[in-house]
Amino acid sequence: MSLPDPIQSRLLAMLHTRTEALEAGDPVPEPLVLSSAFSLPHNPDARRTYARFTNPTIEATEARLAALEAAPCLLFPSGMGAYSAAFMALLKAGDTVLMLSDGYYAARNLVSDIMAPFGLKLVTCPAADILEADLAGIAAVVVETPSNPGLDIIDIAALSTRCHAAGAKLVVDNTVCTPLLQQPLDLGADIVIVSDTKAMAGHTDLLMGHVASRDAAYMERLLSVRNLTGNIPAPHEAWLLLRGLETVEIRLSRMCENARAVLPLLKASAAVQSVIYPASHAQALDQGFLIGATFASSAAADSFLSHAGFTQTTSFGGLHSSGDRRARWGDAVPEGFLRLSFGIEPTEALVGSIKTALGKL
Ligand SMILES: *Cc1c(COP(=O)(O)O)cnc(C)c1O
User: What's the 79 CA to ligand 1 centre distance in angstroms?
Assistant: First the structure.
């Protein structure tokens, strides 16, 4: 995976955020600071007063993410924690939000079940139709691209032009691509939300999320929301994310390479009825590490996963190749549809085990 500038420069800045400022005797890796209390002498440091506002490890992790996003960034204890704060800071009673009917279900339910009683209205539309949606009276449009689980592509630049002409804010969930493969803020989005639980942290051992925006007033409001709702992660999880970020590029590059290597096998197999690999699109730098594959039945899908040595998990973006049969969660997909997430296994060995698994169906 060869990433262009400015992504290479952003990665370099992320990796060198700490090391370029080291003094003699400093530890090279980021130290984990668990403190909730900070010394407050007569003239306290206004930034470091109490850990519900911030903590050195949270700040260090946010600095790494800000380098990747080229934008100020705040950390939350999960992707949904990031969504709830982002919405609270952006929206008010009476506002209407347009979301994808075929996007991540929890984000939609947050508005329809939790925020509707506070006066928010939800309207939905399929990803395929979002560029033609009527935006009159819409306060914010919230999309994912590729969408999850259908992996539809939305043109962020075209949508942001339409949103801004209509006076709506554009919020993009960039969980699937990560800031390495796609930069929604550069394409005109106002706010980006990422579940760092997935490929960003990458080791399937923590929950985390972040919000980034180049709108300073919005980020100030978002910080107030976090301070007053206590929606801040624990330092240890933030530190694990920081550690994961240092290898994000090499992990993603192997994950994408593995997806590309397996794609022709899935396409050629009589056991696979259809394959979705997000169409090549100028706004994304790689087609990614997720493939949607439809098998004849749920039993065939399960058998493929176990013969191929994939873990069955509902998450994605981890080190180990995994699959999720989305129909069991109520997504509008066939019973035999699997969202496959490719991990960092050695490519030839992975291709070998997938050939064997397909041969057994
Ligand atoms: C997982 C996910 C979320 C929610 O993130 P959590 O960290 O599980 O709270 C949001 N959006 C997308 C696209 C996701 O895949």
Answer: 5
